[in-house]
Design goal:
Layout: H1 3-13, E1 19-23, H2 27-36, H3 43-54, E2 63-68, H4 70-73, H5 83-89, E3 93-97, E4 102-104, E5 112-114, H6 120-131, E6 135-142, H7 151-170, E7 174-181, H8 189-209, E8 218-221, H9 236-250, E9 257-260, H10 267-280, E10 288-292, H11 294-306, H12 311-328
Parallel strand pairs: 1-2, 1-10, 2-3, 3-6, 6-7, 7-8, 8-9, 9-10
Antiparallel strand pairs: 4-5
Helix pairs in contact: 7-8, 8-9, 9-10, 10-11, 10-12, 11-12
Length: about 325
């Protein structure tokens, strides 16, 4: 493990005022999004859309890294330039999602565990040597409901997150750990806070047990939010306050940085919540920025689906939301 490489990569990824763009949807997830807007669910359609995202002019002013999926990192533009090479020419770091999806946990009909440790070290060698990937991501999905998430599920996911992170660092790549608390359900803001806090405690207990190098680690987390079906929703300020309180009390100060997933929030709320955190709490112990997917891509996908030949306009929506979140990461968003 070369700690200088890890720290340098983290510093480049979290250099203000930039964030990350997640384009790492699995083929199934991407196909569902395409089907919902009337786009054919083919490999070529996925390649065409990803080329639009990767070649967007000036997005490098606001985005420091792209998280890709295995299919994506192997694809090329229509003229044959590999996607990772396009990104590197723009000064954007290529990253890769390395987990292999979710499976049911311990006989539960709902709770899930993330798989993908088998063969991980070999996959990392290929991603780094062949495609220049310098960072990775592993996602956990936690459901809030009756008896959920169970401590056993949180613990097993945390053990795997820690094993993943240690393996990635030994390959001189930066691991992003993503323990997402899902927005589905009618739970309160307070319940989400309690679940997020307990899970973060478990995650970092296992991270430290495994000997993961904290300055070379990035946490990708969900915000503290009431469930989307909850009768009482929260104000922008409440979400910002509860999220920062939870992170300050349950994330080690020595971590490389924190990025947020949008987790089903719309574009406007994702930006406003991040903005409020920086306005209310200007002195944080770690860099704090965005790693959004739909919150930045949503308008682009909807426009492109109906105007497939007008790539330029579709890209302006993408860059505009990337810029908005860049401003939010400074507390300067005026939306």
């Amino acid at each position: 493990m070369n700690t200088k490489i890890l720290e340098s990569t983290v510093a480049q990824l979290l250099m203000r005022p930039k964030g990350l763009l997640a384009i790492d949807e699995s083929n199934d997830s991407c196909n569902k999004r395409f089907a919902a807007v009337g786009v054919e669910t083919t490999e070529e359609a996925r390649r065409e859309y990803r080329e639009l995202l990767i070649t967007a002019p000036d997005i490098e002013d606001f985005v420091s890294g792209y998280i890709m999926y295995d299919e994506t990192i192997r694809q090329s533009t229509k003229v044959g330039k590999r996607f990772p090479d396009v990104l590197k020419e723009k000064g954007i770091m290529p990253g890769i999602k390395v987990d292999q999806g979710l499976e049911l946990f311990n006989g539960s009909p709902v709770e899930q565990i993330t798989k993908g440790l088998d063969g991980l070290a070999d996959r990392l060698v290929e991603y780094r040597a062949q495609f220049g990937a310098s960072f990775t991501k592993w996602r956990v999905a936690l459901h809030i409901g009756e008896g959920m998430p169970s401590e056993a599920c949180m613990r097993e996911n945390a053990v795997r997150l820690a094993q993943y992170a240690k393996t990635v660092q030994e390959a001189d790549m930066v691991p992003i750990i993503e323990p997402e608390v899902l927005l589905d359900g009618d739970h309160s803001l307070e319940t989400c806070y309690a679940v997020t806090a307990k899970n973060l405690d478990i995650v970092f207990e296992e991270i430290q047990k495994a000997g993961v190098y904290l300055p070379g680690l990035i946490l990708k987390t969900s915000m503290v939010l009431p469930g989307k079906s909850a009768g009482v929703q929260a104000s922008i300020e409440q979400v910002a306050t509860m999220t920062i309180k939870c992170l300050r009390e349950h994330v080690p100060n020595g971590i490389g940085g924190i990025v947020f997933l949008s987790g089903g929030q719309d574009s406007e709320h994702s930006a406003k919540h991040l903005n409020a955190m920086h306005q209310l709490y200007p002195d944080l112990p770690w860099p704090l920025t965005f790693s959004y997917s739909r919150a930045i891509q949503g308008d682009t996908l909807n426009y492109w689906a109906k105007n497939r030949t007008d790539v330029e306009t579709a890209q302006t929506f993408l860059v505009a939301w990337a810029e908005a979140n860049s401003e939010a990461s400074l507390g300067n968003y005026q939306g």
